[in-house]
Automatic annotation (TrEMBL):
Stretches assigned to the Major facilitator superfamily (MFS) profile domain: 42-389
InterPro entries attached to this UniProt entry: MFS, MFS_dom, MFS_trans_sf, Proton-linked_MCT
Organism: Desmophyllum pertusum
UniProt-annotated location(s): Membrane
PROSITE patterns: MFS
Protein name: Major facilitator superfamily (MFS) profile domain-containing protein
Main location: membrane
Gene Ontology molecular function terms on file: transmembrane transporter activity
Membrane keyword on record: yes
Length: 389
């Protein structure tokens, strides 16, 4: 018994009640200062996400222009040289589950900034690589991991900021990947014309460093998400402040998500092959580097336009993203087959532009499907697993 006549257990209960009330007050204060979805700040975040994907994916896709130069420099053969770029593309998906866990454990902003720093350092080290073997680790793995952090954060944070135009927002940030080809291809080609490939990598590292500044806008404290999070914590006050700190595969019980996963995995087995080998294929057909660069430019234009257009169409009630994905995959396969039967510059350009149209539609519809089939609780790790597979 205490001095006021109450039992010790009663005092402990009062203490717990006061503590719970304190937590409720703290959550009310946090909600009053959080970002609101569909606000002007949400569109600012969308713009920053667009620029981040432009720089990160643009640097990655530009390996197609660096491929012939590295092939002549190291003389290691087409297969081994192409594997460096292919590994960088694959790493952007391979580390998806890891980045998903990091986003659950830390903030989106922290993960994106860290990824930008890692990718920047990786490009600087790659510029001094004496052989392709080191490039497998610096460009293929380290740079790929950094780009995965940036790209993953941009795609998973957009649904928090948008409700009415969620698919359009996804399409707009995915425009950055296609815009990367438009912007980075002429820049990389110009750098290769006036300097060495090593200086080109250094310049790319400087541009990629800008993603760290842009990522500062990725505030995870958004209105609707904060409300869901606070409700779960108040119902379970004994739980940790971060709900998902370990791998959780419960999203695999979602049949619709599993079907989508199988379809997207099959599609991605060959979707990046034309982008890597087109530059060398044109060189073998006698097409100069300047016209090859313009092919990548127009491919990027087509991809950019249809990524945004696909996002806009997917917001319509009568249109399902899977229909768009099915049609786009068929067009992409047809364009790839016709490329092998084309020999003139105009024929190859037409095929590559059509392939860009299909590529843009596939990328947007694929990512929109992933987000639509996952609940907010499973979105980070589920989407990470989907890009991993």
């Amino acid at each position: 018994m205490s001095r006021d006549g109450r039992s010790t257990s009663s005092q402990e209960e009062d203490s717990k009640t006061q503590h719970k009330g304190y937590r409720q007050c703290m959550w009310i204060s946090a909600q009053s200062s959080c970002r609101q979805p569909d606000s002007p700040y949400a569109y600012f975040v969308c713009f920053c996400g667009f620029l981040c994907t432009l720089l990160a994916i643009g640097c990655s896709y530009s390996y197609g222009l660096l491929f012939p130069v590295l092939l002549d420099e190291f003389k290691e053969g087409k297969a081994k040289t192409a594997w460096v770029g292919s590994l960088a593309y694959a790493s952007g998906s391979l580390f998806g589950p890891v980045v998903g866990v990091l986003c659950d454990r830390f903030s989106h902003r922290t993960v994106a900034i860290s990824g930008g720093l890692i990718a920047t350092v990786a490009l600087l080290v790659t510029s001094q690589a004496p052989n392709l073997t080191l490039m497998f680790f610096t460009f293929g793995l380290a740079f790929g991991f950094g780009c995965c952090c940036i790209f993953f954060v941009v795609l998973t944070i957009m649904p928090r900021y948008f409700i009415k135009r969620r698919s359009l927002a996804a399409g707009l940030v995915l425009m950055g990947a296609g815009s990367g080809l438009i912007v980075m291809s002429p820049i990389v080609q110009a750098l290769l014309s006036v300097s060495t490939w090593r200086m080109t990598f250094i310049a790319m590292a400087g541009m990629l460093l800008l993603t760290c500044i842009l990522s500062c806008s990725f505030d995870s404290n958004v209105g609707n998400i904060a409300n869901e999070y606070s409700d779960q914590v108040l119902k379970n006050p004994g739980r940790s402040s971060y709900l998902c700190s370990t791998l959780d595969f419960s999203y695999m019980k979602n049949k619709e998500f599993v079907i989508y996963l199988i379809a997207s995995t099959t599609c991605f087995c060959g979707i990046t092959v034309p982008l890597i080998h087109m530059a060398r294929y044109c060189q073998e057909r006698g097409i100069d580097a300047k016209r090859t660069s313009m092919m990548y430019f127009w491919n990027g234009i087509a991809s950019v336009v249809f990524r945004a257009l696909t996002g806009y169409v997917c917001d319509m009630k009568r249109v399902h993203p899977k229909w768009i994905m099915q049609a786009a995959v068929f067009v992409a396969g047809t364009a790839a087959v016709l490329t092998t039967l084309s020999f003139s510059y105009k024929q190859l350009l037409a095929c590559f532009v059509v392939y860009g149209v299909a590529d843009g539609s596939i990328i947007s519809s694929m990512n929109i499907l992933a987000m639509a089939t996952l609940s907010p609780k499973h979105r980070s790790q589920g989407f990470g697993f989907s890009i991993f597979v």
